Amino acid sequence: MFGHGRKNFTWNGTLKELEGSCPERGRPAMTAPLSSSSGLEVLLSTLQNAGDVESTLNILNVLDELLSAGTDRRIQYMISKGGSEALLSALVNTGRSFSPNYTLLLPLLHLLAKVGHRDRRIGMKAEEAGAVLLTLNLLRKNVQHAKRAAAFLWVIQVFCSSVSTANLLGENQGLDVIYRLIPHYATKNQHTIKVAIDAFAALLCTKANVHWVVSKGYISGLLRLYEDWHSNGAQDDAIPIRHSLLRCLHKVTNSTAGRQALVLHGGIRLLYESTQTCLLSKGLESLVEPSVQLMRKCLPTTPLPLTTDQSAYNFPLPGRVHTVPDMDTEEDLRSEESDDEEAEDNPKPDYDDDLETDLNKLRVRPDPDRPKELLPQYNRVCPELSHDFQELDLSSEPEESSSASSSSSDDEAVFGPPRRDRRKSSASWDWSPSSSGSHSETEPEGHTAAASNLEACDFHSHSSILSTSPSFRTMVREARGEAPPGQRGEEVGDEEDAEESHHCTMIDTLLDRHGVCIPHHEPRLYRAAAAQTKSIPGFSILAFPDFWGHLPPPGHEPMAPRKPNIQRKKVFEDVQRFLNPDDIIDQVVFDLEDSSLQCPSDSLRFYSKFECGNLRKAVQVRRYEYDIILNADANCNQHTQWFYFEVSNMVPGTSYRFNVINCEKSNSQFNYGMQPVLYSVREALEGRPHWVRTGAEICYYRNNYCPAQCRRRTTFYTLTFTITFKHNEDVCYLAYHYPYTYSALKANLKLLQRSVDPTKVFFQQQVLCSTLAGNSCPVVTITACPASRSWRDMHQLRNRPCIVLTCRVHPGESNASWVMKGTLEFLCSSDPVAQSLREAFIFKIIPMLNPDGVINGTNRCDLNGEDLNRQWSKPDPVLSPTIYHTKGFLYYLNSIGRTPLVFCDYHGHSRKKNVFLYGCSLKETLWQSGSAVNTMGLKEDPGYRTIPKTLDSLAPAFSFNSCNYLVEKSRSSTARVVVWREMGVLRSYTMESTHNGCDQGIYKGLQTGTRELQEMGVKFCHSLLSLTKDLKAFYSPRTINHIDMDHKSHNCFEDDEPPCVEQIEYSTDCPLLKGTDLDSDVNRNMARADEEEDGDEGQRGGTLCRGSTGQSQQSMKSYLFPHLMRQSSSEKRSMCNGVSANGQIMS
Ligand SMILES: [Zn+2]
């Protein structure tokens, strides 16, 4: 049925006979598989067996024409039909002869290169056919023959897709043979030279071959070649060759020895200098990025300039001998440890594996982690249930009722060790700023023993700014001279020391002159709260912004546009440090552990020994550039990301570069428009007390630092930004995000308590427990007072559903605290919605689950070096008291039949935009995981979607599309999952607020400020109103009808950002160097064959097709690839015109 004449093929059979052989086409009408083999198979078998040169050429030619015109699918089809084997066998047959027929061999090799390029098993097939070493030998014989050599080199390159084949070639001196084919700059045969370099690079896919190349000293040779081609190459002519050389260098530097060799032989300088030239010419631009990546990869790793990676803050844990963990035995879990409840780090491609599919673990409630007898103690945290509301009868006397509302001592720990005896009730406190007595009552707190060292609001660190004003200077002198800090006062009540101090007079004067009215903030109250805060180092200074207060700046703050090639620019500066170490100042200007440090008079001054502060070390590297090293979380050696420090002694109008060099997160919103925040004391004194987003040239990228002790496999990232300070002799503060201290919370709660009308609002602040460091963990109850003391009203009060809100388990997520501030202030407000909510619910709020972490400036952990949001399954009563007691309290609510209607834990997210919720759904988890469990019979109340849906329409920053409701194994010990599973709370959420801003809604393109964060806290409250109509449903076990649910839950585990324009990581394989266009190279070689080489060999059987019309080509194609014929008409058209799709002229 298949005949071929001497000049051309003809198809004598019918198309029908071929149809059945094509597996991919599903035309049911053509049922009968009529022939056992397709036309293609016949062609291939003829190819393998034909001894006749001309018919073999015919076949090769037809195959080549057909394959080069179509898409990869054709080649894949051919491979599936044994195309590679047939070509290899033809190669072996032809190549083995004493004098191979190159007329035949060349088109064969070209076709093999094209097909093999797409056959993943080509290497193994070639080995089986015995074609590998044969090809290498033929190459050896033809090194003088550029065109033939190129053809062999392609095939070798293609064979190297298999490691074992590459090793086989390496063992047989393939590397040496090919290396010798790469000459210094030459204008002739550049095509073949490039192929040789590409083949050499292909061989470097194995460790053994890389090792060989390094040990033979070829790296130096490759560098010299690169240098030569760079310096001699005319503008553009040698770009492909330079690219290929860079690819070789990338491959050889995949080993440590390779990187060392590159550095040793001056590779960094060569690359740096050649890149600088490339930048000057647009045509050479494409060489820059691969060179930069190569430099980043090879720059030697440098230990952080620290004596130890261990945090400078160590806290002796109860029941443990305090030792520094042995880091030799410490396992590096960092890469597995998921960052947030929200999987910020390590976007997991295999996230499905993480979804819980065990129905029992999803449905069955585990046994409580403690005996029932331990629960009744928590009735103290439900004061509203036992309160008699006598003050309602006395409502004509607000003074009295005020004290009633706050009667339960708000500083006394309910659980945990009793604290030192504290004096009287706080009822007599009068914080009213207008009160003349307030100053004398509040100031002396700074001198109590409780805060023995706290010379609160000591302006010591601000003396420079103060000294600029003569009047300020006088005040400072007075304060210093007459009130030596921290030496007066004994153990006395905070409010009872009525001694005036000049120091405080100075503060008062400053406040009176420059203070602005900040809602819910009172500096003196803040100072009083801070005096009682216990920190590991014993902070004695307040950071000015926390004391003075912050107002959101007027206007919006758009995300910062990313400068093009910013990372490249920064990397060049980093490379210069390596190349010219003498230009680097390298002067330590701040060391948390060395306060005696002297620094040059013209350098910036740093400071961070205050609440939430985090700065371990600052090193001046250039005149206006500083490296910043952050302190690891207390009692551990990692989790650096959060920063907050003071800087002064700046020159205004000069831009300073700051590099935070030991960040640990693998990506950051700093690459997507986020800026750090800055607070200027001078601006504040001029009436603008704002934290503002600031900083230019912001970039976050992987650097070459390693831990100081080098025992931990850690990747560090640099956050770099430049700041131009506005004022002379200013004191500024820089932070990762708007700070929110523990003292701020304490002061805020006090103010809220004062602000409410106690006849309307039941507001009670209690202490849930003491933290490890002895700070109190507040729990707040907010609800409406009953209308009267009648049984009915009291009954209604005591049956209101509970809503439990928690926050700030992760200290670095200060944005969560601002959202919580919004929630608290709203719930205490006179807003009618707030009133409705108070009448409908009892709010139980634990606004700071990790006070110790917040105070000591940690990013992630508590003082025991653990992520508290991974302790919920079995919290330790001693080491994780806040979690232990919060969970105990929830158990208690359960035990009295008052399971919360809503639980929400407020968090911050550093890698995503917007605000969103994570919830828990059994069905969605099973669906998403592809579990085989039949969910049809499972009942699930879809009410968990009500709040997110409501928020989507209410809150501008909220994004419903970012929410999901999946239960992950790795999150099984988080608040959200434990409260859902163990407490049976249907609406159990994590609320994630971005550190950056929004990419949707009215805030699109803007960074969020504290105003927007607080607004989010308000909107969350609003959304709770949507539940009030559900209340009946909640109390009767009526099954709610299924509301529509889309099964396509969003995959929250993916970074929501597109890959950064510039690589954050330096990859082992530079993506820009991947994917050589082998096809076009091969084709060019064919085309050029006639020009450059002996024309007699290169006829390529072109005559074969000469007689063919477009029509016959068409029918041939339909015969060979019938199932692929319904391709684009443009392809057909081009075929008819005798031009293949890739522009090649046929015949
Ligand atoms: Zn978090």
TrEMBL record:
Every Peptidase M14 domain range: 738-1028
Biased segments, Polar residues type: 1137-1147
Annotated Gene3D superfamilies: 2.60.40.3120, Leucine-rich Repeat Variant, Zn peptidases
Any one cellular-component term (Gene Ontology): cytosol
First-listed, main subcellular location of the protein, grouped into a coarse class: cytoplasm
Region annotation Disordered: where it falls in the sequence: 316-375, 391-449, 478-501, 1088-1113, 1126-1147
Active site positions: E992 (proton donor/acceptor)
Glycoprotein keyword on record: no
A Pfam family assignment: Pepdidase_M14_N
Keyword Hydrolase: yes
Keywords: Carboxypeptidase, Hydrolase, Protease
Matches recorded under InterPro entries: ARM-like (IPR011989), ARM-type_fold (IPR016024), Cytosolic_carboxypeptidase (IPR050821), Pepdidase_M14_N (IPR040626), Peptidase_M14 (IPR000834)
Bias (Acidic residues): 327-344
Needed cofactors: Zn(2+)
Protein family according to the UniProt entry: Belongs to the peptidase M14 family.
Protein name per Swiss-Prot or TrEMBL: tubulin-glutamate carboxypeptidase
Organism listed in the record: Eleginops maclovinus (Patagonian blennie)
